[in-house]
Write a structure and sequence with these properties.
alpha/beta, Rossmann fold, five-stranded parallel β-sheet, about 35% helix
């Protein structure tokens, strides 16, 4: 379960966004909506453990983020939080497959090549496992990003505008894959976006105000 209580999030002690109370049960999904500058990315970064809360609590699977520091937070994030960024963040010198194995290694988990290849097969890009990330098309890169975010069976998968740059067909494909992979591990899916096309896939929403 993801629990948020009296959260104030931002940078350098400047509060950008506040969430008084919010809960997600395992397998539930949430859309974070709002105009540019409303704090979507700030909230997502805080839920992802990349930013520490200025005040309040975020608890994931009985672990309070305020009790996790430095390497402990990094390991917790690697094992329990899958992140899909707006742009592909991969080690360019490594192949697609090696980038997935690196995600397992960084989380302190065994490197399971068979599992990584199976996931790439499920996403329809197993033939790209020996390629470098920058040689892939945008749609292929997005699938690799999904693979890396889900390789460790996280409790929560978060995405920052994962569909906004995609055409309608690719948008539906990516959303279908995300929902399917989240369902297979009973993970929560939290997406921050201004892409109105995907609203119908989410029963819970957080709508943030204008620029702070």
């Amino acid at each position: 379960m993801l629990e948020i209580q009296n959260l104030k999030a931002g940078y350098d002690k400047k509060v950008i966004v506040e969430v008084p109370q919010f809960n997600l049960l395992p397998g539930e999904h949430c859309l974070i909506l709002g105009a540019s500058g409303s704090g979507k990315t700030t909230l997502l970064s805080t839920v992802s453990g990349l930013l520490s809360p200025i005040a309040g609590d975020i608890v994931l699977d009985s672990n309070n983020y305020n009790d996790l520091y430095g390497a402990a937070m990094d390991e917790f994030r690697g094992r329990h939080i899958g992140i899909i960024y707006q742009t592909l963040h991969m080690v360019s010198a490594l192949t697609v497959l090696d980038n997935l194995l690196l995600a397992q290694y960084a989380a302190g988990l065994p490197q399971d090549k068979k599992k990584a290849v199976h996931l790439l097969e499920h996403l329809g890009i197993a033939d790209k496992k020996a390629d470098k990330p920058e040689t892939l098309s945008q749609g292929q890169q997005q699938r690799v990003a999904i693979a890396r975010a889900t390789i460790n069976n996280p409790k929560i998968i978060v995405g920052d505008e994962p569909t906004s740059a995609l055409d309608d067909n690719a948008c539906e494909t990516v959303m279908g894959l995300l929902l399917q992979l989240a369902s297979s591990s009973n993970a929560c899916l939290v997406i921050a976006t201004h892409d109105q096309r995907i609203k119908r896939h989410f029963h819970k929403q957080i709508t943030l105000g204008g620029a702070q």
